[in-house]
Amino acid sequence: MLKEILIKGFEKFNAGLNGEADNPIHAIRNNAFALFEQQGFPHKKLEDWKYTRLSKLVQNEFNIPDSASIDENSVKPFLIPELKSNLIVMVNGIYNKELSDIKGGEEYFIGSISDGAEKYPDLVEKYFAKISNFTLNPLSALNTAFAREGVMIYTGKNTGIELPVYILNLIDAQNSLPIAQPRNLFIASEGSSFKVIEDFHTIGSNTNYTNAITEIYCGKNSNVEYYKIQDDSDKSFHTGSTDVKQERDSLFTATTISWGGSLIRNNLNILLNDENIETHMYGLFYARNREHIDNQTFVDHAKPHCESNELYKGIIDDNATGVFNGKIMVRTDAQKTNAYQSNNNILLSENATIYAKPQLEIFADDVKCSHGATTGQLDKDAMFYLRARSIGENEAKVLLLNAFASDVLDKITIEELQAHLRNLLLKKLKREL
Amino acid sequence: MLTIKNLNARIEEKEILKGLNLQINAGEVHAIMGPNGSGKSTLASVLAGREDYEVTDGEVLFEGKNLFDLAPEERAREGLFLAFQYPVEIPGVSNINFMKTAMNEIRKHKGEEPYSAPEFMKLVKEKAALLGLDKEMLSRYVNVGFSGGEKKRNEIFQLAVMQPKLAILDETDSGLDIDALKTVSNGVNSLKSDNNAFLVITHYQRLLNYIVPDFVHIMYDGKIVKSGDKELALHLEEFGYDFIKNQEVGV
Fold first, then answer.
1. Which of A198, A212, A258, A347 could make an S-S bridge to A230, C-beta 3.0–4.6 Å?
2. pLDDT tens digits for A216-271?
């Protein structure tokens, strides 16, 4: 079983980390692992895991890779065309310096989390494993135990990173059944801004598992745009959590696109920790064959005068399953909150399934909150209208689904990324990919 | 061009068309009039291939081909066009992209190369001007937020761009004010030629002052019960549908 493999793996991993005892990341490893060991993988009796079972994941004989190297040519096919960026290539969850291309700048830091910990020990001490609370989430504890060479981004006060930070996560499943546990920490100081893309792909046809954690701290009046793209293979398992803390006057936008993987479970947790904060959460998922895609979002309005806005759209075909669970918490203090949530799903086959669960918990009395969830099939009248204008049945379907997805893709502000995703979506809808 | 013989059709268990016959030749304009529930719009839907209807008997030949062997998109590619009574809103698809996709399907069917962007824009601008359509309407999503009149004009605009052999206008006049009615009619009249034909379905004679038919048919209870020239429409306007009903009962 996977848990036993991880226990053995952790002993070996820990023994190999001699001399890092002072590292603030290292200091909490043992605690985190003990927690995982005690709780194990989440099971279906937990309310949040009712629709997503990990039984198929934990039965695999995975390997914990020590290091991995791939050549430049195997990276190229995955790059987003035309995109000028600060490129970071991660292989099996580990930062690869040779393949990365960081433009660099005086006022910010982009690099590995261990280099970051050397340069900014206080910052890492202050934020690492503080935004993502691993005591509540055994998968986060597992990631924390194995955290090593993830990405750290730090922007100084009133600065910005001109080009987006593009993190290409490759998992090498050619010769083994790898586990990757990327661990990222992004810190935007007061008044600073950046855009960051996490893009996940698989090389090779073996079963593989990614357990990812990203922590994001949005300082006062900062502006952070975060994209997570999942385009792994049909042998890929992905569990991941993006945990965000926003301070006063900050603006945070998350866009999550999931359309490749055997099982995907995303958590997006955002704490609105002060006043006048704005938060946007966009999501698009397209599940085919036997894929299972689960998105759980939690936005926590803790203080007054904040606004959150959420739009998730799902297309589910064949025997695939989608899950959307969107929780909005408005605490007693959070008067004058505006919180909107919308989730729309299209089922394309009789065997496709969606579990949609909007969850509003409101404890303040002067708020504006709304949510709407719809699930349906393609509009029959629209299909006939298109066909009566000579557009074939498949082409009409592609046109309508493309339009349905556009509401989310339109929100992407990085032009090259938007064009790339539109192109990919069309190919996927036409089953060319 | 179009031959309908003994057409019977139903929706769910309800028989609507009960042995309808009609012959339309190139260069002709036919009008079908009739009271509500007589089956006018069912005829239009059956010809365009809407799946809710089941044809139980009879045949329809379009340019020598059995219409019921063709999917809706194949009928359109062969040159059959239905201007919808209730045009459908399609959020996320722009009018211009919609028309371009449609036109290129037709060109592919004819073995022609797709339009180049400038060629297509030229065609579209010319036809938009004909219907007094705002340029801005072309980039808007198909029928989304359009007024009733704008939707109908958009249908005739599509007709003008696609230039079908046979155009069926299903109550295109209903809900139009007199100015919009004139614009739409002028559009249709300018498209008339010896090579195409129109089937105008309407409840009111008013439209036929502008689109003058060669033949007028009166439909009642799923059949054509009387045919004549444009004078028949005027007669109907004067005496109402009751004279048909009374005649029917008398027969």
1. A258
2. 999 999 999 999 999 999 999 999 999 999 999 999 999 999 999 999 999 999 99
* A143 and A22 in a common domain: yes
Q: Say if residues B131 and B46 touch (Cβ distance below 8 Å).
A: no
- What CA–CA distance (Å, rounded) separates B238 from B243? 10
A23-39: burial string, b at 16+ Cβ within 10 Å, e else: bbbbebbeebbebbbeb
Contacts of A387 in chain B (CB under 8 A): 49, 71-73, 76
- Taking CA–CA distances from B95, the nearest residue in chain A reads A386
CA A350 to the chain's CA centroid: 29
Burial classification of residue A83, based on how many CB atoms lie within 10 Å of its CB (0-12 exposed, 13-18 middle, 19 or more buried): middle
Cross-strand partners of A338: A307, A368
Q: What is the H or E stretch that residue A2 is in?
A: helix A2-15
Number of domains in chain A: 2
Chosen domain end from A225, A259, A274:
A274
Minimal Cα distance from A404: which residue of B? B92
Residues of chain B with pLDDT under 50: 250-251
pLDDT (mean) for A331-355: 97
Residues in A closer than 8 angstroms to B73, CB to CB, are 387-388, 390-393, 396
A345 residue type, one letter: N
**Can you say how many angstroms the Cα of residue A165 is from the centroid of all Cα atoms in its chain?**
15
Q: Report chain B residues whose CB lies below 8 A from the CB of A392.
A: 73, 105
Which of A238, A255, A274 terminates a domain? The answer is A274
CA distances (Å), origin A290, targets A173, A270, A293, A376: 20, 30, 10, 20
Q: Give me the residues of A, 374-413, that contact B with CB < 8 A.
A: 379, 381-382, 384-393, 395-396, 399-400, 402-404, 406-407
**pLDDT tens for each residue of A61-94:** 999 987 677 889 999 999 999 999 999 999 999 9
* Whole-number Å distance between alpha carbons of A74 and A175: 15
* A311 in a structural domain: no
Q: How far apart are CA A390 and CA B70, in angstroms?
A: 11
Q: What number is the ipTM of this complex?
A: 0.95
Count chain A–chain B contacts defined by CB atoms under 8 A: 71
Which chain B residues touch A402 with a CB distance below 8 Å? 92
Q: What does the mean pLDDT of chain A come to?
A: 95
What are the tens digits of pLDDT across the range A7-19?
Answer: 999 998 888 876 6
Residue-level pLDDT at A24: 74
Measured between CA atoms, the residue of chain B closest to residue A378 is B90
Q: Report the 10 Å Cβ neighbour count for A66.
A: 10
- Judge contact between A355 and B40, C-beta under 8 A: no
A112 in any annotated domain: yes
Task: Indicate if A117 and A233 belong to the same structural domain.
Answer: yes
Does residue A386 sit within a domain?
yes
A320 domain residue, yes or no: no
Strand, coil or helix: A409: helix
> Hunting for tokens 């918990």 — which residue is that?
A361
Asked whether the beta carbons of residue A389 and residue B102 sit closer than 8 angstroms, the reply is yes
Q: Give the pLDDT confidence of A124-151 residue by residue, as tens digits.
A: 999 999 999 898 899 999 999 999 889 9
B2-250 folds as Rossmann fold (3.40.50)
Is A403 close to B77, i.e. CB distance below 8 A?
no
Structural domain boundaries in chain B: 2-250
Contact assignment for B90 to A387 by CB distance below 8 Å:
no
Query: What's the domain range around A212?
Result: 2-274
Residue whose tokens read 């007199």: B178
How many whole angstroms separate alpha carbon B200 and alpha carbon A97?
Answer: 71
pLDDT in tens, A237-247: 999 999 999 99
